[in-house]
Amino acid sequence: MIHRDIDVVILCGGQGTRLRNTVNNRPKSMALIKEKPFLDIVLGQFYRQGFRRFILCTGFMGQFIYDYYRNSKYAKYIFYSEEKIPLGTGGAVKKAEKLIKSENFFVANGDSYCRINLQKFTTFHLSLADGLVSMALAMRDARADGGGVSLNDDFLISSFAEKNSFVSYPYINAGIYIFNKKALSLIRSGQPSSLEYDIFPEMVGKNIFGFVVEDRVYDIGTPERYKKFLKVFKSF
Predict the structure, then answer these.
(1) Residue pLDDT, tens place only, 44-83
(2) What are the angstrom distances between the C-alpha of 153 and each of 122, 156, 204?
(3) CB atoms within 10 A of CB 91
(4) 218 with 113: CB under 8 angstroms?
């Protein structure tokens, strides 16, 4: 499958309440990193590796995102799925369903970043006979609020615990996934739901697999992590 034919759904509708004292005039995903929005970094990784169809799931201050990207180099590749009321990560993906054309598609958080070879990730996912979702996994670090994950020998996710409970887990959720469209049947339409709390835990041991990457996960969810990313940005 050619990357140009694979859709990329990016979740950028969150309100960013924890970051509000530091970034209060724009959506969290648009927080400035050396004069460019964080979302540019997320989009850029996919764009550089050949992807050309993006669906931005917007909500809080969504007009800000639209106004910025309508004149960007990505403009002709972007489609918008706008939430009138907050739907959570699961509800946002489900709402975007009518815009998703590819049988398998990426889902990525708009406020986190992990270096990843997307070709290898795609090949891994397509090699699975019964995989509905593949989750990129990073090695555990010092963070205490990343989703903890364990795998069995067949890369099937055998346990998953979202945030604050991953002490005994070897990996954390990197916030980048590949979905088969069949997985959308697991999400109720029009109702708020969380991928991390509602959907993924129900899939454990069945049809959700893990793809381990070498790099760590960066996100800007708190003022401390936002400031830390500003310091390391020169390497991106």
Answers:
(1) 999 999 999 999 999 999 999 999 999 999 999 999 999 9
(2) 19, 7, 14
(3) 25
(4) yes
